[in-house]
């Protein structure tokens, strides 16, 4: 009789423990994420995922958010936009996440947007394309400076140097297509004519044919490559092999040490717009981003023994904005969190100062970009 009673007590205890565990798990704030941790955009997505994992762990170690732990539920789309759509659907319908951070690429982000808009769930993209936030979409925000801003930063430098005729080589991915469109749209504003316009596929291993056509165009003074992942490195090496004696500019899609490693010595002299994060040590002490980017760089290096990239910084900014919004909303009510994200003002992140509004779901100005070049395999601040 005693053994039977004891057995019932043990079973009851186990049931209670199970219920308590389930309640604790349900009480977690569920952050969903879709990143390109593998595939052509892996060198963008891998540091994003590592950053989310690192800082969610740190937030939890410090007591969580509003007394609740953060739980990261993430999927790898393999750099394929159609997979991003499927994973977003899973995050919303099966995983029941409270918020989504993701979309390493513009294509993946655009594939997820219809789902998050329909479901009414806050979504913070880490990709650059203007179409992500223009026109403004109620539930969609982003933390990466836009491709339009990148083109304007490059054109500001070209105008200073008296460059008026350029060749454009862009990727056929979502990022490259948006970048090409924005580049062509803003060029006249800076008195620049695009006299040669070629494209390449994100998986192409050689673009000498396109570069040869660009080089042969009369009057051309510089070349601007707009892409992300491995393609720009291929173009850079081909550029060197063809001994093209014209200035080479890249977009912010290559602001990672991985680009320099993939390009090798061919990257020497390349100019590009990038966030302050990659040249943290070169910033003056009075720079408002100095403390933020230096702390992130130190933390990331200590954990992963690897160089930082602006893409990992996008993960940090997205998470910190989300955490601040949840605190401001007093919980995970999706409408309240959405409103709190939109009300983000004066947040200094790795990408710059964010001042969002109902008409601007990014909140970054052109000052978010610094102009860099590469000298002897290292980033150098130009202006």
Automatic annotation (TrEMBL):
| InterPro entries, per database record | BCAA_transport (IPR051010), Leu-bd (IPR028081), Peripla_BP_I (IPR028082)
Instruction: Report if keyword Transmembrane helix is assigned.
Output: no
Name all Leucine-binding protein domain ranges: 29-363
Pfam families from the entry? Peripla_BP_6 (PF13458)
From the UniProt annotation, give the residues forming the signal peptide.
1-25
UniProt keyword terms in alphabetical order: Signal
- The answer to whether the entry has keyword S-adenosyl-L-methionine is no
Q: Which family does it belong to?
A: Belongs to the leucine-binding protein family.
Q: What protein name is recorded for this chain? A: ABC transporter substrate-binding protein
Species of origin reads Janthinobacterium fluminis
For this protein's source organism, the top of the classification is: Bacteria, Pseudomonadati, Pseudomonadota, Betaproteobacteria, Burkholderiales
């Amino acid at each position: 009789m005693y053994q039977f009673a004891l057995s019932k007590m043990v079973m009851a205890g186990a049931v209670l423990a199970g219920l308590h565990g389930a309640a604790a798990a349900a009480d977690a704030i569920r952050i969903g994420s879709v990143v390109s941790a593998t595939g052509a955009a892996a060198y963008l997505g891998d540091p994003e995922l590592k950053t989310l994992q690192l800082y969610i762990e740190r937030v939890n170690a410090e007591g969580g958010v509003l007394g609740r732990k953060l739980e990261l539920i993430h999927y790898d789309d393999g750099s394929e936009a159609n997979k991003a759509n499927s994973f977003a659907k899973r995050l919303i319908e099966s995983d029941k996440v409270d918020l989504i951070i993701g979309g390493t690429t513009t294509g993946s982000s655009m594939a997820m947007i219809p789902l998050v808009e329909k479901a009414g769930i806050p979504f913070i993209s880490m990709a650059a394309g203007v179409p992500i936030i223009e026109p403004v979409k109620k539930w969609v925000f982003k933390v990466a400076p836009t491709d339009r801003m990148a083109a304007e930063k490059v054109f500001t430098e070209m105008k200073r140097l008296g460059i008026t005729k350029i060749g454009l080589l862009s990727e056929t991915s979502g990022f490259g297509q948006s970048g090409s469109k924005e580049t062509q749209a803003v060029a006249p504003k800076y008195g620049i004519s695009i006299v040669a316009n070629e494209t390449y596929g994100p998986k192409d291993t050689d673009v000498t044919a396109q570069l040869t056509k660009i080089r042969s165009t009369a009057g051309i003074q510089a070349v601007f490559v707009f892409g992300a992942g491995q393609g720009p490195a291929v173009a850079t090496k081909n550029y060197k092999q063809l001994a093209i004696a014209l200035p080479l500019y890249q977009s912010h899609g290559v602001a990672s040490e991985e680009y320099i490693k993939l390009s090798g010595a061919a990257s020497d002299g390349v100019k590009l717009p990038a966030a302050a994060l990659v040249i943290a040590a070169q910033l003056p002490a009075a720079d408002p981003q100095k403390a933020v980017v230096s702390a992130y760089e130190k933390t990331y290096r200590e954990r992963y023994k690897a160089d930082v990239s602006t893409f990992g910084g996008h993960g940090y900014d997205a998470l910190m904005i989300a955490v601040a919004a949840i605190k401001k909303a007093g919980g995970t009510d999706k409408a309240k969190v959405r409103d709190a994200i939109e009300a983000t003002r004066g947040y200094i992140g790795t990408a710059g100062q964010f001042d969002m509004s109902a008409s601007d779901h990014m909140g970054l100005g052109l000052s978010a970009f610094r102009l860099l070049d590469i000298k002897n395999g290292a980033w150098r601040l130009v202006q």
